[in-house]
Amino acid sequence: MWSCQRNRRKGFALVATLSFVALGTIILLATGSQLSRTTDVLASYKAISRVQNIAGNAVEVGSHFFLKDHGQFQSRWPGINDFKNSISSRAGAESALWLDYVSSINETTSCLDLSSEVNYYSGDAGLGSNEYSIECYVFSVGARYITIASAEKNGIKRYSLGVISRVGIAQGGLPALRLGTLDRVLKKMNAGPGNSGITGDIVFGSAIILDDPLTLSLTSQATPGDVVIGTLTSPEVVLSFTGTNPGEETIEQWLESWLVQTDKTRQDYLNEWYEDYLASFPTEVTEIRYSMDDTDGAGNSYVLPAEYVGDEYVVHVDPPTGHEADMRQFIAEFSTSGLVISYGDNKLTIPSSIVQNEAVHLVINGDTRFENDENDPHKVALVNGKYDIKVLGNVDIATNLAYPSLLGYINNGNSDNNIVANLPKEVNSEIATNIVSDYGNPEKNTSWLRLAAVGGDMDMYFQRNNINNANSAHGVKFLMGDFFAFSVGGEGGDVGFVDNSNANTNVRTPQFFVFGSLTSETFDSEDRIEEIASLVAVANEGNEADGSPSSFFSTRLALLGVQSW
Predict the structure, then answer these.
(1) d(CA 99, CA 87)
(2) Residues 383 and 478 in one domain
(3) Is 246 found in the same domain as 154?
(4) Any residues with CB less than 8 A from the CB of 550 and at least 6 apart, and which?
(5) Is there a single domain that holds both residue 417 and residue 397?
(6) pLDDT digits (tens, 9 = 90+) for 99-136
(7) Residue 108 and residue 467: Cα distance in Å, rounded?
(8) pLDDT tens, 464-486?
(9) 391 and 535 co-located in one domain
């Protein structure tokens, strides 16, 4: 016997429908809640961004007031520590660097309070239409100024900082290197054993090098920016890797922001550099001439009067009559007392006391050798004051040249009485930044040098007393200033290394170091450059204390950029 029972579940569809409706309601409620939270977050981000923008605008407005009238730094900002704490709470190396940069200022540091000046325009939409509480202060940090502004609304407070520095052409503004040819493979700087085993090259600042192509040799850990820390202008660059090639995509990314490829001819550049230099030297001014003629067989001794310093005069130093048969050079010797230019028994003295505020513009009409008082290429001649020197002929540099305030960066003679620079220097960003900062600080430095060989070469000498033995040639040359070698009529234009072939490389690796700029048509045309194990060029940034000796040396303060937190 069998039976069949049919169970009709009439309520199943209703239950299922209600379940789906309930689930959908939960999803909608959750989604709505999430959307609400997202909207709140976006609104918060928008509010924060708006406050940051207001603070950034306040920095620009405050900086504008400061640039128009520096004012007196007689205020204090009680909120400086809150600003520092805000930076320190942000993660990342960038915030740590900014915190270190402002570490020297605190609640007792004098500043310029521009809050009222900025708030005068707070009704403007760019400053929040009177809806924000705004403060703005300017501090002096080293050779620069910083503008710090805060903006606050509804409990949201944000800060912005602007850096104000000098820009212009005064002993700066030029690329660290401007070379028609280099003919050298540039490599990343490395330090060998001890302090003296330094090899490789580094340029802090931009460079124009017109080799076609210019070759850089890189390890797998290096980038082109490790060699030229700035932009490079060149017709073509070849990257050679001693390790793993990073790949075309990575290389293209490097070159995109670093290399400025130019199709302007090399000669166009050379002509432009020379014309710019000639235009920068004073013209249509009073010429003062000193002749190195002997009088009755006795030498003449002149002292330049202070009235001949400045833009209204150019001082010419002429060789004696009949000098064509005389192979002697002019001898120029810098010291803390000034500059002495001699020819035989005749000499012209320029006291350093008269060139502290304005520059003396000199034209030396003949080959000139720059020495120190010991005629020792490893010693240092101190350039105390402002000198703009044009040599019509060859320039021999048989000394190191340094500004008194920066002597500590190169003196390895262990005392002020034994100032010498015969050790190569390992250079990093901290050292470069410090030397530039000290140079630009008017309280520390009042000196600069511009030296040009026009129609001649500029040669570096290394051997002591011209004695050709290894123990007296360490191959280190350190120069401070702007240096030029221009070809005229096919003569000159090279920066050369005359007697470095016997440098004792087992003791100290040869190095050529320029702080300022170097411009030449050729660089070591006699192919001695490989004897220089390290090439270093650090561009300076102009000097507030240059006394504005001429319009082409003038500088001005400018807001370089704004950082917001």
Answers:
(1) 6
(2) yes
(3) no
(4) 280, 282, 311, 359
(5) yes
(6) 888 988 999 999 999 999 999 999 998 899 999 999 99
(7) 58
(8) 655 544 445 578 899 999 999 99
(9) yes
